[in-house]
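The instructor's notes for this session suggest beginning with a concrete chain rather than abstract definitions. Hand out the sequence below and ask the class to guess, before any prediction is shown, which regions might be ordered.
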Amino acid sequence: MDFNGPEPADLVDVRSINTAFLEFLCGADGDPLRCELPAALRPVVAALTGRQIERLAGVPFLLLTLNESDDTYWSRVRDELPVGDLFAASHSPSDPLGRIVVAALGFQWQLARKNPYAARLISGASLSWCEQLASCTLLRVLQCAVEYQGLIAPRQAAHKVLWARLLGAGLSSAEDLRRAAHLSALQIVLSPVISMSERRWRSAACYTSVPVLEVHGRRNVSEDD
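After discussion, reveal the predicted structure:
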């Protein structure tokens, strides 16, 4: 397997999906998902400002999960999901959360086909999950997305250290501090998928250069925090 990290265009998509997810998460409809986070951090999420969402969305991985760690579950989904009318009213992904699921799963599908290693970095998923997803047709992926919207959750929602870091230094106005927190969070996300048989993959991850997205423009000091 090639060990090429995500491209700048991939991280643009990650940022876009993260932004949509965070906007939903901190809104009124996001309360059920916020309840999966540590209790002390829920008010922090609910009070996120637009500037803070912009900063947190820049992490080099998806802040949402679609239960990628359960290979058995996704194998069953892939093989047993009935083939129905994708555009039937009961299956319409017209609600905001449904659109996020469709976008996230479709993005991971195309990335898994193009660069499985980058897909693993971005989603914290196993190679098996990436291979299962890549083996699906686009129609099957979209059917999975609209049928299983209940899969979506904040990534490792119960991990206090991860989310305290993301909602602390990960929101900092100091770029160096914020980037260090984001990379530290990435290491936590990747930890569950690292095993003794994957030492080569882990070593490659240490030397992978993740592109940095920068937004240039005049800063308004009064809006900095």
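Then share the key points. The CA atoms of residues 8 and 211 lie 6 Å apart. The first strand starts at residue 64 and ends at 65.
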